[in-house]
Amino acid sequence: MNATNRSLSLNSSKTGGCSRSIIDDEYIAVDYFFAVLSILLNVLTCPPIILLNTLIIIAVKTKPSLQTMHNILLTCLAGTDLTVGIAQPAFIAKDILLTVGTSSSSIYCTLSDILQTATLCLCLVSLFHLVLIGIERYVAMKYSLRYDSIVTEFRLTVAVVLSWLIPTAYFIARMIRKARIITLLFFVFVSLLVIIYCHISVYLVSRCHMKQIKSEQVSAEAKREILEERKALKTTTVIFTGVFLSYVPSILTGFLMQRFPGTLAERISLSSMSLTASCFLFNSLYNPIIYCWRNAVMRQAVKKLLKKQQN
């Protein structure tokens, strides 16, 4: 009987996503553990995600010295992270419904489907913003003399708007059954290729610049600019690494579900789906921490805002 129940649970998970019902007593404790852990982590991270990303946006908006094209793009990414923080209470509500045993109810299914779509959409928006950041760094290092004519405010605005419009249009089309999953994979694949190409190119240019500094072939002003660009490159590298690491849990569980169907590994992967999905959201917490850690001016601006808030 236990084997039959387990098989039914696994099959229902594959067919409907949100229609997964916890019907096998053997794994109720595992489902409950991952759901409660996801709730706790989301409750703890939601307030700082909203606070820190709001402070980053305000700091760049109010401090002229921070209003570079690179920082503006980081602020746009902070806006995406802020949206994630605002959406977190809905994720918490979904996991609470799961823990109280309503995982097969229509409310849970509807909420789960909406949040799954929203999560994928926000992930794609963030990925597009990372593409823009990578391209901006590429232009800054490769075409430094033409940077101001290439990276203009108008082009930046259009690019950011498209970064939101394209994923939103795709997922609206997907919800009404008019978009294929291959389109999403194409977006992700092309985005990753652009990011990797830009980052490798920028790294090679940066290494050449450092060789020039060591051989003392540049002026003091040029040396300062090169070091600033190199610091921005390192910041971008840390951000890219953090985002890609947040994808690892979902990639791992997806691999286990495809590679070992009908096994304990698949069942535990299904149980941990709420937690692995939350890993995408936690990325929105350490992004603003990275900005403050790597940028002293932004760090001081955020501290001043916090002091004013306390007063």
What does this protein look like?
The chain is mainly α and 311 residues long. It has a domain at 25-130 and 142-179 and 238-310: Rhopdopsin 7-helix transmembrane proteins (Up-down Bundle). It has helices at residues 2-16, 28-62, 69-99, 106-142, 147-150, 153-175, 181-214, 220-259, 264-271, 273-294, 296-310. The radius of gyration is 22 Å and the shape is globular.
SSE layout and pairing:
Blueprint: H1 2-16, H2 28-62, H3 69-99, H4 106-142, H5 147-150, H6 153-175, H7 181-214, H8 220-259, H9 264-271, H10 273-294, H11 296-310
By CATH, the architecture of the domain at 25-130 and 142-179 and 238-310 is named Up-down Bundle
Number of strands: 0
Question: How far do the termini sit from each other?
Answer: 64 Å
Rg (C-alpha, Å): 22 Å
Helix content: over 70%
Keywords:
single chain; 311 residues; mainly alpha; Rhopdopsin 7-helix transmembrane proteins; 11 helices; 85% helix; disordered N terminus
